[in-house]
């Protein structure tokens, strides 16, 4: 049996105005998972539970084969965690932080840290208080990556960055996370970032996992189809149709399982296909979330 970098099953956490509901997900070694949801969906809460920073009310959690929170100290030796609200010591230099982290983690790779300094265009003599937001994120990533963690947890690392800084950070991440043994859990509400870097995706909304699958499967299976139908013809019904709207004779459907069988059923229903459009990951994300909220409101 292949060891999972992350395994969560039936995890729950209740606050006064928010709850995680039976969150389950698995992340294999070498996999890069995009954890996507709107602000307040439960991404950060889930990640903090994985880190042992927040204790779940129920459920099973294993990180790198170790139970959380019981074995969190041992697990954290091999976890690198970066979030958008991490703060370094303002009056200290990047070099001071590097020496500090190296004194704690025996696996610190000084040569790799030096390579990252050059790659991130940083200097050991720079003081944290003089860093831009993008440089601050890069410094935090350097301190984590040079430890050679087996699991990298990134909680909204590009939040608040301008487009150029975000492009630079993502570009560097794509270079350094290519290690086949390292798993990465990357949370964001920015689907463009996720589509660039991740190979599998989990959507979360209002504390519930909506859908989880390979990125290519999402992109291949979801379509928006434009049809022409008689004004009095009923809208097509199928488990594979997520949404259907009508404007006179023009009907637009969204499907999460685009197959020849579905198109055959539409033709049998008297529909003429006018156009078939691929959907972006952002469109798929929004459609998934709106379907989920519609199901909750019934």
Shape: elongated
CATH topology annotation of the largest domain: Rossmann fold
| Order of adjacent strands in the largest pleated sheet | 6-7-8-3-9-10
Sheet-strand content, in percent, reads: 25-35%
> What's the count of strands?
14
Query: What structural category do the secondary elements indicate?
Result: alpha/beta
How many separate helices? 10
Helix content: 25-40%
Number of domains: 2
> Compute the gyration radius: what is it?
22 Å
Poorly predicted regions? none
Largest sheet: 6 strands, mixed
SSE order: EEEHEEHEHHHEHEHEEHEEEHEH
Level-2 CATH architecture of the largest domain: 3-Layer(aba) Sandwich
What is the average per-residue confidence, as pLDDT, rounded to a whole number?
91
Distance between the termini: 40 Å
What does this structure look like?
The chain is an alpha/beta fold and 298 residues long. The chain is 34% helix and 30% strand. The chain has helices at residues 43-50, 72-76, 94-104, 110-119, 133-145, 163-176, 191-197, 215-221, 260-268, 281-297, and strands at 4-14, 19-28, 32-36, 58-63, 66-67, 79-83, 151-155, 183-188, 200-205, 208-214, 223-228, 241-247, 250-255, 272-278. The mean pLDDT is 91. It has a six-stranded mixed β-sheet, sandwiched between helices. Helix 5 (133-145) packs parallel to helix 6 (163-176). It is elongated. It contains ten helices and 14 strands. The chain has two domains: 4-214, 3-Layer(aba) Sandwich (Rossmann fold), CATH 3.40.50; 223-278.
């Amino acid at each position: 049996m292949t060891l999972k970098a992350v395994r969560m099953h039936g995890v729950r956490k209740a606050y006064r105005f928010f709850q995680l509901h039976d969150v389950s997900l698995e992340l294999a070694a070498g996999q890069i998972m995009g954890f996507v949801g709107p602000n307040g969906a439960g991404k950060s809460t889930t990640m903090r539970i994985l880190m042992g920073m927040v204790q779940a009310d129920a459920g099973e959690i294993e990180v790198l084969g170790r139970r959380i929170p019981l074995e969190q100290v041992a697990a954290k030796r091999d976890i690198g965690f970066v979030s958008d609200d991490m703060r370094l010591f303002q009056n200290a230099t990047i070099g001071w932080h590097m020496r500090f982290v190296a004194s704690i983690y025996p696996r610190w790779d000084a040569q790799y840290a030096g390579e990252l300094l050059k790659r991130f265009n940083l200097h050991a003599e720079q003081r944290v208080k003089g860093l831009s937001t993008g440089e601050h994120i890069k410094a935090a990533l350097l301190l984590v990556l040079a430890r050679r963690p087996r699991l990298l947890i990134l909680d909204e690392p590009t939040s608040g960055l301008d487009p150029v800084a975000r492009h630079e950070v993502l570009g560097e991440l794509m270079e350094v996370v290519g290690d086949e043994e390292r798993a990465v859990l990357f949370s964001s509400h920015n689907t463009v970032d996720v589509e660039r870097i991740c190979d599998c995706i989990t959507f979360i909304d209002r504390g519930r996992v909506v859908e989880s699958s390979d990125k290519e499967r999402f992109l291949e299976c979801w379509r928006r189809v434009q049809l022409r139908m008689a004004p009095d013809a009923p809208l097509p019904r199928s488990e594979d149709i997520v949404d259907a709207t009508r404007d006179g004779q023009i009907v637009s459907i969204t499907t999460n399982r685009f197959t020849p069988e579905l198109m055959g059923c539409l033709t049998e229903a008297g529909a003429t296909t006018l156009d078939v459009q691929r959907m972006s990951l952002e469109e798929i994300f929004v459609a998934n979330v709106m379907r989920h909220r519609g199901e909750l409101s019934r």
